[in-house]
Amino acid sequence: MDSFAANSKKSFHIRSNSLPSKPHPVVDEVNENLCRLKASEATSSSSSLCQKLDGLQDLHDSIDKLLLLPLTHQALVDNKSVDNLLEGSLKILDVCALAKDVLSQMKESEHELESALRRRRGDDILVDVQKYMNSRKMMKKAIHKALRSMERTSSQKVDENSEMASLLKEAEVVTYSTIESLLCFIAGPKLPSKMSRWSLVSKLIQPKRVASKEDEANGNEVEMVDVALYSINNQKSHFLVQVEDVQNSLKKLESCIHDFEEDLESLYRCLIKNRVAFLNILNY
C-alpha cells in the first residue's frame, strides 16, 4: 500500500542556499529515519505494521527537535510553508485519532464476543456472532470512507522551492501511508468467493496443525477472525470450526489490537508535540 515506494531512492539531504552547506546533525537524523521507513518492507502483517509505527515515532521525535532549530524557523517562514504544514499536521492528528477510535470500538466488540463464546449457549452464540459481524460491516464502511478522504488529501503539495518544507512534507506522506496501511489491515480484505473463504476456513479446522513461522508472520489476525465467524454463521458450516479455535483467533486479535493501541498512543503524543512546534513557528 506504500504510495511513496516508487520514490524510495530519492535523496532528502538539505541543500537550500538558506541553510548551511553541511546539514545540521538533526537534519541528518530526520533524513535517516525517513529513508529507513521508506526502505522498509511492505506492511502486510501486524508485526511489520508495529515496526513501522515504531519507526514513525522515531521520525517524529527527530522532527520535533528539527522544528526547534532557528534554521528551521527561518526556512519555513521565508518560504511561507508553515501554514500548509500546520494544516497537514492537523489532518494527520485527525486520521491517527480515527485509527485509535476504530481500534477501541473493535476491542469492545471483541471482548463482548469472547464473553458470549465462553458462555456457549447455542443459538445465543450465533446472535452475538452476527452482532460482531454487523459491527465489522459498519466499521469497514467508515474506514473506506476515511481512506478515500486520505487519498484526496495526500495529493496536496507544498512549495517545492523550500527543501526544508519538502522534507517535512515527505514525512507527512510517510505517516499518512503507514496509517493508511493500518486502516486497511483493520478493515480486512473482502471475501470475494467461496473458494477464498474455504481456503482460509480449512486452516481453522485443523487444530493439530503446527503453523510454520512463515504462516505466523503472514497471518492477518483480523482476517482470520472474520473468516472463522463467517463459517460459524453459515448454516452449512458452523459446526466445522470449533469454538476453541475461534477463541484462540480472538486472543491473537486482542494482542494485536493492544500492540497497535500502544504504538498509536505514543505516535499521537509525538504528533501533538510537532503541531505545537508548528504553531510556535507560525507565531514566531
Number of strands: 0
The average pLDDT value, as a whole number, equals 78
Calculate the terminal CA-CA distance, rounded to whole Å: 38 Å
- Please state the structural category: mainly alpha
Strand content: under 5%
Number of helices: 10
Q: Determine Rg (CA atoms, Å).
A: 22 Å
| Cα shape | elongated
What's the helical proportion of residues? over 70%
Give the H and E element order. Answer: HHHHHHHHHH
Low-pLDDT parts are: 1-20, 204-218
Task: List key phrases describing it.
single chain, 284 residues, mainly alpha, 10 helices, disordered N terminus
Can you describe this structure?
By secondary structure, this protein is mainly alpha-helical. The chain has a domain at 20-192 and 260-282. Helix content is 74%, strand content 0%. The two termini are 38 Å apart.
Task: List the topology elements.
Elements (H helix, E strand, L loop, with lengths): L24 H15 L6 H21 L3 H9 L3 H38 L3 H32 L8 H25 L6 H11 L8 H6 L2 H13 L9 H40 L2
Helix pairs in contact: 1-2, 1-6, 2-6, 2-10, 4-5, 4-6, 4-10, 5-6, 5-9, 7-9, 9-10
